[in-house]
Amino acid sequence: MSVFNGFEGLVKNLYSSFYTDLKISPASGKTITLTPQQLAELRTVKGIKNFSLVVEEKALVQNGENQSVIYLKGVDDQYRYVTGVASHVLREHYEASTDFDLGTEESPRLIVGVGIEGALGIQADRNIFLLKVYLPRKSNTEQIDMLNDISSDTIRTSGAFAIQQDFDNKYGITNIDFVKTALGMDANSFSAVEIALRDPAQVEKVKEELQKILGSQYVVETKYEQNRSLYSVMNMERWVIYGVLSLILVVAAFNMIGALTMLVLEKQKDISVLQALGANKNFIQKVFLSEGILLGLIGTIIGMLLALIIIILQIKFHLIPLEGGSFLINYFPVKPRLFDFVLVAATVFVIALLASWLPSKKAAAQVFSLRSE
Question: CB–CB of 279/315 below 8 Å?
Answer without folding.
Answer: no
